[in-house]
Amino acid sequence: MSGVLLFLWLANIGFACAQINGYKDQPLSQIAIHKATFALRDSASIRARPSIIGTKGEDTDLVTVILNNSEPSVDDWIGVFTPANFNSSSCPPSEDQKGEQPFVCSSPVKFKYANYSNSDYTNTGKATLRFQLINQRSDFSFALFSGGFSNPKVLSISNFISFANPKAPVYPRLAQGKSWDEMTVTWTSGYNIEEAVPFIEWGLKGESRTRSPAGTLTFERSSMCGAPARTVGWRDPGFIHTSFLKDLWPNSVYVYRMGHRLVSGSYVWSKFYSFKSSPYPGQDSLQRVIVFGDMGKAERDGSNDYSDYQPGSLNTTDQLIKDLKNYDIVFHIGDISYADGYISQWDQFTSQVEAISSTKPYMIASGNHERDWPNSGSYYDGQDSGGECGVLAETMYYVPAENRAKFWYSTDYGMFRFCIADSEHDWREGSEQYKFIEKCLASVDRRKQPWLIFAAHRVLGYSSDFWYAQTDYEEPMGRESLEKLWQKYKVDIAFFGHTHNYERSCPIYQKQCTSIEKSHYSGTVNGTIHILY
Ligand SMILES: [Fe+2]
């Protein structure tokens, strides 16, 4: 097994008990936006500049917002809305004819307190704030609210701001295809297929380039399973394209860019990106793997930070970007963006990790925050997905699964075979998923691929944490039968997320350590090492 190095990463340590607090921790959910009323007054004003951003093709840019308010208050806040027109004209048809239509039906994509950068605001009523916007296929406006988050009143709405090309192709994410020599590129744009043909232009670095077509997906509000995804959290997801780059040479550097050929015959291009193709299965070369879970997102301009939600995600993202030369493939095993039904936040997440996912395969697994919703087919009936019920994760990211709604797949990387399971669907003995897991574990040639790795989101019982290890709340579900499989097929390591605390077990089988070694293992260890995040 020379030349194989396994890197581990720990994300979001400081945010324990996510499964307890659930979706209510999403910062945007603290705002009772459906109760917002209009109280526009001339003595309050909000202006934003410049009016056009991203003029050099950038997909993120800074905007300055200037406030004047003759009756300032400590709980005044600014919401960023996109599309810019967020009044009741954007409300969906009401199912309840007798009910009163709200004035505002869409959540802001982010917010800041008015006194965020000027503590004197409550005396002077004047403040200047900076917001970082990302290209989200539509224009933006800023609204000044009084009444805090529970009783919001719109005092003033800014001029509208727009990216130079709001529909531009953005946020590429790579993933391994169904075979080792295929790389997939998924990205987001505002171009539907009637308007433009999406494709990837690509080739070996320094050689001629070819073009491969892309498939396009999108979905409607009605695909969401409940609130907030179906109500105030809904936002048009744009168009999500995936192209399949096939017959790659192993361990070779490729360059690529996203393109859209408009009906007029002209082209819209992204900038160029590059990646290194995967090694041949069994190929003995340096192969470095990052595994983590539960990262989430945060705003670099300090927006939404009152709840101290996931500032650690920026540290992890930045470290991963700094270390790009030191690893080859990433597995983010569930609880991806924590959008929790606020659809806009998936754009923010894909933007945050772009520098990683555009150049390394970014493989995901499904977690409770992607999938769980009552009566939607998830094994658990919690509401942690905020009504997304898996639709966002399954559409925004490609995984080489037979059926992306059943989030289990195998993928080979040189000397590794990964069997990625879906803890949010039944995996007990006899289930469809169980059969897949056995097939994945049984079908690898261990002389060529000595490392056999299992990964899933929820912990399967071995943890020093009482909550995960001792109660029936989590996953003793299926443990005995899955453990039997791991033992039979000699799984080296099983990775899990969900706990937000790092733990590593000894090689273990039926609650017994199978080796007295503490840190170095070699040969057959007769048990599986469990690693938790
Ligand atoms: Fe989780």
UniProtKB/TrEMBL annotation:
Keyword Nuclease: no
One Pfam family it belongs to: fn3_PAP
Name of the protein this chain belongs to: Purple acid phosphatase
EC number(s) from the headed UniProt entry: 3.1.3.2
Molecular function as annotated in GO: acid phosphatase activity; metal ion binding
First-level EC class: hydrolase
GO CC field: extracellular region
Record keywords, A-Z: Glycoprotein, Hydrolase, Secreted, Signal, Zinc
Organism: Rhamnella rubrinervis
InterPro entries attached to this UniProt entry: Calcineurin-like_PHP, Fn3_PAP, Metallo-depent_PP-like, MPP_PAP, PAPs_N, Purple_acid_Pase-like_N
